[in-house]
């Protein structure tokens, strides 16, 4: 029996996995091991950004760190990377791993005359500025949620693996004087969910292609044991933030167990009458996510499991409507951070969300065969629609009003959403702003917003999308993958407020992935219906010459290709799996 248990544990922990890596990963990714469907792979640095010494006196053979090794120490290793320190100079180096990742670092050392442990200070960073920073100060670097600045001890002729955070850059400093230390490798230990990219998107605009892929990768990194919002900070299940992430998962990865696992976690963590995460709108997002999840995957048995809690939640929400049909929700009244100090925006957004939630509740009750509650919740939604919030000028709340049919979609688009370009956007509610623009048939305008706003992060060196982004900050700032330039701001460390001041700001936030599902929904034109059994194909190419891609369904992979001719007519080719109903 003991041998059997030992064999099972061995299999689970160190089983070598040869399945294909997702297409966003390059050939530099080394062999990987897998635990369950979580995998780990080791990556060599792609670039040396900075060294404290360029004379060769304190840092030698630094180019060796950029060469892929075998991960095994040996007594006869020659010409290894070398740190040499004294009282006046304790050398340091800054490495770039080429792409944001979740995980830690593995350092392997060679022989040196002193057999005591080598003390090194490690500073992980999502940006160059963060990796070069100290904890605290005006730029607010922290060790909150995950450790990113600490000292380790490395064995003589051995390896150590440490760290669990989101990062792209690593600074290493020697702590003590009088060291002469050889280091064979400094590999990033990348931990991710080992699943294929089933959905894809390609069009005639390469910038849009990169944005779609970056949104997909951002969410992929956050698909850890649960679905997080951030891999450096906000390694938590924030149910409202999950909605754009779940739409991205539906689009790219299909039905993944991390979604129901996370939805069930927050349900059980916040028994009624508590609001999920203490926020009333987040409890409404939980219902809206379940509506989307069933729409895409048609999992009736899972929906039935939610019925008791879902009905109790809808009944609780129904008690927060006054005689004038206004929502009067308690708890934390929150849409997103940019609207958090605007009561008129918050009310307009919450009123809209109440309508959307009761409409979704009515449809879900119909699916569950509860005709009495179906009619009741439809009636409540109509009652809420009689109240028209006044005075809102925020794009976020205006987008929700459009989607809830509380205001004319075309007027909302012209008078609010298109004002001042992409100023006033938020990465979280960007998805709903794009949805509202589609609701107004402004597909070309939405594509320009995607290229300007999310493309603006790419222009600053982003490989994942950020918790927050103000387009006005971009023109005065350095890229995140470059050292600070005199006279310019650090886009990461010098801006931000609320919970994302300075380097506390997360540069990998799943709620920012909205363009990925949106491009599939509206450019490829893939609209899911009938519990995922039917797909309506209705492309909107704008100025694009072609668009093509794949989409995961419960029957298999759907492939769609659209090409525009000289007269502007679109030729569509569809390859649908058996059993999937297509409407054109």
Would you give an account of this structure?
This protein has helices spanning 2-14, 128-131, 206-222, 239-252, 258-269, 280-297, 300-305, 307-318, 343-367, 371-384, 395-403, 409-417, 430-439, 443-459, 471-474, 515-523; strands at 16-17, 29-35, 38-43, 47-51, 59-60, 81-84, 92-109, 118-125, 149-154, 159-174, 180-193, 200-203, 477-478, 489-490, 526-529, 534-537, 546-553, 556-564, 570-575, 581-583. With 584 residues, it is an alpha+beta fold. It folds into 2 domains: 41-193, Galactose-binding domain-like (Jelly Rolls), CATH 2.60.120; 200-467 and 506-529, Alpha/alpha barrel (Glycosyltransferase). Strands 1, 2, 3, 4, 5, 6, 7, 8, 9, 10 and 11 form an 11-stranded antiparallel sheet that branches. It has a 4-stranded antiparallel sheet with strand order 12-17-18-19. A hairpin with a 2-residue loop joins strand 2 (29-35) and strand 3. Helix 9 runs antiparallel to helix 10. The longest helix is centred in the middle third of the chain and has 25 residues, at 343-367. The radius of gyration is 26 Å and the shape is elongated.
Task: Throw out a few tags for this protein.
6-hairpin_glycosidase_sf; Glycosyltransferase; four-stranded antiparallel β-sheet; 584 residues; Jelly Rolls; 2 domains; Bac_rhamnosid6H; 33% helix; disordered N terminus; alpha+beta
| Overall radius of gyration | 26 Å
Mean pLDDT: 94
Beta-strand share of residues: 15-25%
Tell me the structural class: alpha+beta
CATH topology annotation of the largest domain: Glycosyltransferase
């Amino acid at each position: 029996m003991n041998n059997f248990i030992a064999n099972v544990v061995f299999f689970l922990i160190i089983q070598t996995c040869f399945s294909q890596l997702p297409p966003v990963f390059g050939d530099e990714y080394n062999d990987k091991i897998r635990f369950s469907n979580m995998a780990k792979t080791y990556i060599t640095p792609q670039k040396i950004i900075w060294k404290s010494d360029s004379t060769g006196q304190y840092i030698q053979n630094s180019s060796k760190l950029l060469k892929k090794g075998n991960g095994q120490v040996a007594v006869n290793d020659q010409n290894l990377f070398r740190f040499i320190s004294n009282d006046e100079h304790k050398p340091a180096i800054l490495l770039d791993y080429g792409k944001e990742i979740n995980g830690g670092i593995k350092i392997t050392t060679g022989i040196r005359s002193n057999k005591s442990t080598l003390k090194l200070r490690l500073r992980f960073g999502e940006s160059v500025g963060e990796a070069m920073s100290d904890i605290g100060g005006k730029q607010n670097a922290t060790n909150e949620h995950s450790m990113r600045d600490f000292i380790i001890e490395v064995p003589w002729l051995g390896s150590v693996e440490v760290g669990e955070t989101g990062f792209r850059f690593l600074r290493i400093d020697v702590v003590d004087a009088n060291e002469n230390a050889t280091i064979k490798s400094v590999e990033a230990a990348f931990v991710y969910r080992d699943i294929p990219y089933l959905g894809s998107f390609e069009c005639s605009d390469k910038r849009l292609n990169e944005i779609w892929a970056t949104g997909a990768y951002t969410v992929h990194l956050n698909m850890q044991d649960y679905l997080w919002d951030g891999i450096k900070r906000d390694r938590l299940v924030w149910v409202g933030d999950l909605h754009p992430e779940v739409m991205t998962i539906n689009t790219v990865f299909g039905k993944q167990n991390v979604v129901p696992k996370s939805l069930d976690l927050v349900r059980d963590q916040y028994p009624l009458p508590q609001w999920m995460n203490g926020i009333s709108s987040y409890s409404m997002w939980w219902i809206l996510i379940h509506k989307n999840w069933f729409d895409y995957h048609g999992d009736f048995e899972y929906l039935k499991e939610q019925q008791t809690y879902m009905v109790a939640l809808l009944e609780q929400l129904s008690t927060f409507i006054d005689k004038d049909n206004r929502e009067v929700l308690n708890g934390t009244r929150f849409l997103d951070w940019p609207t958090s100090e605007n009561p008129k925006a918050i009310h307009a957004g919450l009123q809209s969300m109440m309508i959307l939630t009761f409409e979704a509740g009515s449809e879900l009750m119909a699916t569950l065969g509860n005709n009495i509650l179906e009619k009741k919740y439809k009636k409540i939604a109509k009652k809420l629609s009689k109240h028209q919030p006044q005075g809102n000028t925020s794009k976020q709340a205006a987008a929700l009003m459009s989607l809830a049919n509380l205001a004319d979609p075309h007027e909302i688009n012209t008078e609010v959403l298109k004002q001042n370009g992409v100023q006033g956007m938020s990465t979280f509610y960007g998805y709903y702003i794009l949805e509202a623009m589609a609701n107004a048939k402004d597909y070309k305008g939405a594509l320009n917003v995607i290229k300007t706003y999310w493309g603006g992060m790419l222009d600053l060196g982003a490989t994942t999308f950020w918790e927050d982004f103000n387009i006005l900050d971009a023109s005065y700032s350095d890229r995140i993958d470059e050292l600070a330039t005199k006279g310019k701001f650090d886009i990461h460390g010098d801006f931000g407020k609320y919970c994302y001041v300075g380097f506390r700001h997360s540069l990998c936030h799943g709620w920012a992935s909205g363009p990925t599902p949106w491009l599939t929904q509206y450019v490829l034109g893939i609209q899911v219906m009938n519990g995922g059994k039917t797909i309506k194909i209705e492309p909107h190419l704008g100025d694009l010459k072609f668009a093509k891609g794949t989409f995961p369904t419960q029957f298999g992979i759907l492939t769609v290709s659209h090409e525009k001719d000289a007269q502007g007519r679109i030729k569509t080719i569809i390859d649908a799996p058996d059993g999937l109903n297509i409407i054109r």
